[in-house]
Amino acid sequence: MAYYTIEDPTCEASKMQRAANRLQLQAYLKQYAKMGNTECLNKHAGRVGVEMGISQHRAEQWLLFMHYLHTWLPDFKEHVISKAHLEYQHFQKLTAVLRTIEPLLPEHESIYTVMAKVDAFLVKITTARFEHQALPRPEHLRRQLSDYLIRLNITGSDERDETCTTSAEAFPTHTPGLSGFTWIGPSDQILRLDQSICNLVNRERISRSEAMHRICNENAQTSITLVGFAKTSHDPTPTHIVGAGELAKDQQANLTKLHKHYHSITKTAQQLRDSYVPTAAQCAVVRLRDGTCRYPGCDRDALKCQMDHVINHGAGGWTSAGNLQSLCTEHHNTKTDRRIRTTMNEYGVSTWYFPDGRIAISMPTGILAGIRGNPKAVSTRWGKHTQADDNIKPPINNGIGRWGYTVNHKLKRLTKHLKRKPSFEGAEDIPF
Fold first, then answer.
1. Residue 346 domain boundaries
2. Res. 262 pLDDT band, cuts 50 70 90
3. Strand pairing partners for 350?
4. Is 223 within a domain?
5. Beta carbons within 8 Å of 83's beta carbon, 6+ residues apart
6. If pLDDT is split at 50, 70 and 90, which confidence band does 196 have?
7. How far is CA 94 from each of CA 63, 65, 147, rounded to the nearest angstrom?
C-alpha cells in the first residue's frame, strides 16, 4: 500500500501529528461555518485569533483556505481531512496561488470548470505512489499548482495585463546600516537577473549586493546559460526553464531571440561515462528530472544544487543520469559524511535509509520526472561493489561527521552570522 512517511501506521509520532492536523482542520472549518456571507472577514479573523490564541493574519489565512475547501474543492476537502497529512504551511502556500485564479482567469474560461480541474489536481499531487514516500514540501506544492495553472493559460506574466501585480521596492532590515530589496516580475526575467548576478559574483569574487549594484548602475556585462525543456528539435523553444518553472506563451516568445543549443533528452539520459565530471547536457537532464534537492523534505531548487553520484564515483559509480541526483550543499555533505545512505533506480526514485532504520522515498518532481535512465547505471563500472567500495563506515566525530553539528555548534554559528564574509556561489562539487 502506498503512503507518505507521515501516514506510517507503525510510527507513533506520525499518528500524533496527523491527529493534531485533523483537529486543526476541523476547528477552523467550524470557525468558517460561523462566518456569514456578509460578515467582515477582517472582523471575524480578529475574533478567531483571540479565541484560538494566534495572530489575526494567521487566522485570516486559515479562513481563506477553509473558504476554498468549502466552496470550490469538495474532493480535496474530504481528502485532507481523511488523510490529515498536510498542515498550515501547505495550506498557506496553496492559498497564495488559489487566490490568483479568479483575477487572472481568461474571459472565455468558466471558474467552475477550472476549479473542478484544480480540485482533482490537488488530490492527485497529495496522494502517495510508494510506501514510505516523503511528504511534498509546501513550496513544492505551490510550484506544482502554479505550473498547472500556467498550462491552463492562467498566468500573470504579461505585464500589460492590468490584473498582474509587479513591483520593486526597498525595505529596512533589523541590521543597522543594511536594507533589503524585492522585485516581483515575470519568472523568466527574474531568473535571468539572478543568473547574471551569480555569474558576476563568481567572476569578480564580489558580494551579490555589489554585483547587483554594478549591473544596475554600471552596466556590467555577463553571459548566462538557461537550462530548459523543448518538445522538439525542429522548434526548440523552451516551455519550461529550470529555476523559473513553466513558461507562459509570452515568456516563450521572449526566449525565441536567444541563442539555443538542443540536446536529445532520451540519448543524454542513456549516456554512461567513466569520467567523474558530468557533461552540461547530463546536468540539465538531471535537474529537469529532479526539480529540487532530492533529500526528503528539501525544496531547494535543483538549479542551486550540486551533482551527486549516488554510487560514489570512486566506488565504481557511473556518471549517468541513472546514478546522478541533485543535492543542495547541506544534504550533499550529509550523504558524503555517511550520516545517511541512499540508493536510486533508473527512473530517478531515491530511497533514503536513516540510521534508526527509517526509510523515506524521494520522488523526482521536475518536468522530466519519470524519464528512464540507463539500467546499467544502478550498478558499478566493474559490475559489482563491496561494502568497502560504498564507504559505509560510521561517520567520524561520534557519528556527527565533518559537517554535522550539535545544538551548541548551531548557536555558536548564529552568533557569528553578522561577521561572516560574503559566500561565493558556483564552488566545485564534492568529489563523490
1. 266-385
2. confident
3. 344, 362
4. no
5. 7, 18, 126
6. confident
7. 13, 8, 12
